[in-house]
Design brief:
mainly beta; four-stranded antiparallel beta sheet; seven-stranded mixed beta sheet; 126 residues
Length: 126
């Protein structure tokens, strides 16, 4: 019954901001390292950001560093991705991922992760 449900995507213009949310259920949320990935049409899946169980450690991809911030609220079973200064290169489906064993560093590859959400689409027009 584990479920990760992303929300907050939409169509925005270059320079706009969006905050994505991933609501988790069916798991002990605080025991899971959480991450965001994205995949644009015709492109490989790309790591975006990860956050440790307590939220004390974050790992941000170089491509979005300085613009995106990952955070979590363990009382709400939710992880967030704040996206600022969006560009068309950020257009992709954004996916939430959870794993009880991996660190934020080892989640970067996207391999062997226990749970994935269905994604939310972010489209940034020029």
């Amino acid at each position: 019954q584990v479920q990760l449900v992303e929300s907050g995507g939409g169509l925005v213009h270059t320079g706009d901001s969006l905050q994505l949310s991933c609501a988790a259920s069916g798991l002990t949320f605080s025991r899971y390292t959480m991450a965001w990935f994205r995949q644009a049409p015709g492109k490989d899946r790309e790591f975006v950001a990860a956050i440790s169980r307590s939220g004390s450690i974050t790992d941000i991809a170089d491509s979005v560093k300085g613009r995106f911030t990952i955070s979590r609220d363990n009382t709400k079973n939710t992880v967030f991705l704040q996206m600022n200064s969006l560009t068309p290169a950020d257009t992709a489906g954004y996916y939430c991922a959870a794993d009880p064993r991996m660190t934020s560093a080892t989640m970067k590859s996207g391999d062997g992760i226990n749970f994935w959400g269905k994604g939310t689409l972010v489209t940034v027009s020029s």
